[in-house]
């Protein structure tokens, strides 16, 4: 009985959520043979409105963003990298997040809040990578909407 509960909890672990996202991006990366074909292809279709935010631009921008997030998960984010270049090559300061030191009583609540947030974001990003892969297949005419 204990193994069933552990197995269910592992399915919902952060590690597995990250692996699902990385797998979806790897699949997207292997499927998209010519990323430049994604330029100027609009993101939104009727079933994609929740997954995509309006400021992402075209599918190429999403492709690059998803690969960048995968790299950050796999290799970490350099703390010394205080500046990044946006899609136009302009150097911009990264968000300067206020460093709040929570007291020990709130650490568990804070951890659970951020863990839940990570799960939510990773699930949406995974759907976005899968959607992009399927849309690419439709654009070049090699497949249906299946995974």
Per DSSP, the total helix count is: 4
Structural class: mainly alpha
Q: How many structural domains in the coordinates?
A: 1
Topology as a string of helices (H) and strands (E):
HHHEEH
Chain oligomer state = single chain
- Main β-sheet description: 2 strands, antiparallel
Helix content: 40-55%
Q: Reading side by side through the largest sheet, how are the strands ordered?
A: 1-2
Please tell me what the overall shape is. Answer: elongated
CA distance, first residue to last residue: 33 Å
* Unreliable runs: 46-55, 90-98
- The Cα radius of gyration reads 18 Å
- Report the β-strand fraction as a percent range: under 5%
- Whole-number mean pLDDT: 78
Number of strands: 2
Describe this structure in words.
By secondary structure, the chain is mainly alpha-helical. The chain has one domain (1-76, 114-147). It is built from four helices and two strands; from the N terminus they run αααββα. A two-stranded antiparallel sheet has the order 1-2. The longest helix has 34 residues, at 107-140. The protein is elongated, with a radius of gyration of 18 Å.
Feature tags:
single chain, 147 residues, mainly alpha, 4 helices, elongated, nucleus, cytoplasm, Spot_14, Mid1-interacting protein 1-B, Lipogen_MT_Stabilize_sf
What is this structure's SSE topology?
Elements: H1 2-11, H2 14-31, H3 59-75, E1 83-85, E2 91-93, H4 107-140
Antiparallel strand pairs: 1-2
Helix pairs in contact: 2-3, 2-4, 3-4
């Amino acid at each position: 009985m204990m193994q069933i509960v552990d197995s269910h909890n592992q399915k919902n672990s952060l590690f597995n959520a990250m692996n699902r996202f990385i797998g979806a991006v790897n699949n997207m990366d292997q499927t998209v043979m010519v990323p430049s074909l994604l330029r100027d292809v609009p993101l939104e279709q009727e079933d994609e409105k929740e997954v995509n935010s309006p400021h992402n631009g075209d599918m190429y921008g999403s492709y690059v963003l998803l690969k960048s997030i995968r790299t950050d998960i796999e290799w970490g984010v350099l703390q010394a990298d205080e500046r990044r270049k946006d899609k136009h090559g302009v150097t911009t300061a990264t968000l300067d997040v206020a460093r709040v030191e929570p007291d020990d009583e709130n650490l568990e609540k804070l951890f659970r809040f951020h863990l839940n947030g990570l799960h939510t974001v990773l699930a949406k990003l995974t759907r976005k990578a899968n959607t992009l892969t399927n849309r690419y297949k439709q654009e070049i005419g090699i497949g249906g909407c299946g995974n």
